[in-house]
Amino acid sequence: MAVSTSFFSSAKSEPFFLKHCSSSPSPSSFSYLTTHLSFYGRNRKSLVQSQKGSIIRCDASSSSDANSVSALQQLKTSAADRYTKEKSSIVVIGLSVHTTPVELREKLAIPEAEWPRAIGELCGLNHIEEAAVLSTCNRMEIYVVALSQHRGVKEVTEWMSYTSGIPASELSQYLFLLYNKDATQHLFEVSAGLDSLVMGEGQILAQVKQVVKAGQGVNGFGRNISGLFKHAITVGKRVRTETNIAAGAVSVSSAAVELALMKLPDQASHGNARMLVIGAGKMGKLVIKHLVAKGCKKMVVVNRTEERVAAIRDEINDVEIIYKPLSEMLECVGEADVVFTSTASENPLILKQHVKELPFASEEAGRKRLFVDISVPRNVGSCVDDLESVKVYNVDDLKEVVAANKEDRQRKAMEAQVIISEESGQFEAWRDSLETVPTIKKLRGYAERLRVGEVEKCLGKMSDDNINKKTQKAVDDLSKGIVNKMLHGPMQHLRCDGSDSRTLSETLENMHALNRMFSLETEVSVLEQKIRAKVEQKP
Questions:
Q1: Most buried residue, 33, 92, 351, 457, by most Cβ within 10 Å?
Q2: Does residue 438 have a cis bond before it (omega within 30 degrees)?
Q3: Does 13 or 135 have the greater pLDDT score?
C-alpha cells in the first residue's frame, strides 16, 4: 500500500486543507448558519447548498415569513446532517524513514514518557476526540479520531508545527495522511513489520504494544484508538506466526553492525577493531549481541548506570564487556575505532568540538573513526561529519544493508497482506457496529421507562393486602422477562460485528427504522454535541 496518500501541496503554496478549512474553532452549525443567513438575504440571491447529494434551495427574495422559517429550518437540518451522516474518522498523520530525513524526524520525535501529555494536548483540540502517538527511530505518527476530517487534520498539523518549531509549509512536503480503512491498514502493516526500514523486524511490534501500555488510563486514549492498536498487536503476532516473515530478518541494530563492518578497511578484522557502545537500553543490548555474533570478543559500554551493563555481561559468556560511566564517554570515544550510539537523549551527546582534539583511530581502522548513530533524536551532531578524521552514519544510511535480503521478504509480505486485509475487514466491522450503540442504549432506556411505568400502575391497582415483596418481585421479574424477549430480535438486528452474514447497510437500515418508530433520534447529532462541548470548555 502506498504510504503517501498525501493531502498536501508543495512548500511554496499553502497546504490544500489549510485553504479549505476555517482557521477559527468551529461554532455550532445551527448558530453559525442562523447568524449568517441575513447575509444571503441582503444579497437577495438564491442559495443552493448541496449536502451528500441532496440540494437545498433557499429563495431569500420570498416575502413569506413561513417560507423564511422553512428555509432556515432546512439550513439547520442540512448543517446537522453533515455530522449525522458522516461519522467520526480515524486519521493518521505522520512522517516515516522512507520519505523524511532524520534531520526533520528528530525535531518531531516525542519521548515515550511524554506520550500521555501529547495525547492530552491533542484531545484538547476542538475536533479531536481520541489520540495516540507512535514515535520511534524510523517514524513519528499521530493517530486520532477526528470529529471533522478537514478541521481535525488542520488542528493536528498546526500542533505538530507548533511543538516542533517547523513551519507547516515545510512539514507539508513530508507528511503523509491516511483516513479510516487506509489508516487501519497502514497501522496493521507497521505492526507486522511491512513498513519498517528492515522488513519483518520485531522491535516495532514491541513499540506498538508500548503505545497501548502508555495509553492505559489516559483520558483521550479511547475505545476506537485503543481498539485499533490492540487489533494491530494481534495482526503483528499473526503475520509473524503464519508467514515466517521475521525468519532471517535483520533489525536496525544488526544492520548498524553490518554497516560498520562493511565500512571498516579490509585489514581490520572483527576481533581487533576497538568497539564502543554508548547506551545499554534495548537497542544497545542488541548491538552488543550482534557484535558478539560477528566475533567481537571485547568492547566498552558507556551507560548512565552499571546495572544494565552487568545484566548484559551475565547473559553473554566468553566476552569481555567493560563498563564505563557517562562522565568518561569522551575519553572512551578517543580510544575506540567504531562508536555505536543508542541513547534516549533529546540533545546531541557528541559534537564537533568534542571530537576534533581526539587522537586518530588505529592504523587497522584506517585512522578514521566510525560513528554509527541509531538514535532519534541523534546522539552525534551532524557537524561531526565535517571532520576528516571521522565518518558519521545514522539510521537513514542503513538502507544499503537492508536491500541485500529484501527479495525473499517481499514474497512473504504478499502473504502477510492477505492476513492484513482479512483483519482490516474485521476491525472495520467492529467499529461500524459501534455506530448502533447509541440506538441500542436509547431503545433499552425507552423500554425500561415503559416497563417501570406499567409495573407501577399494576401495583397501584392492587390492594395493600395482596402486595408483599415476593409479589412485587414476581411482577417485576415478569415484566423484565417480557421486555427482554421483545427486545431480543431488534437487538440482534442492530449488531454487525462480522460474525454473521448481515451487512452493515442492513444493520444501519434497521437502526434508522427503530429510531423513526420509537422517536429515538435527537435534534442535534452526537458529533455536533461533542464539538459544541469542546468549544464551550475553552477558557
A1: 92
A2: no
A3: 135
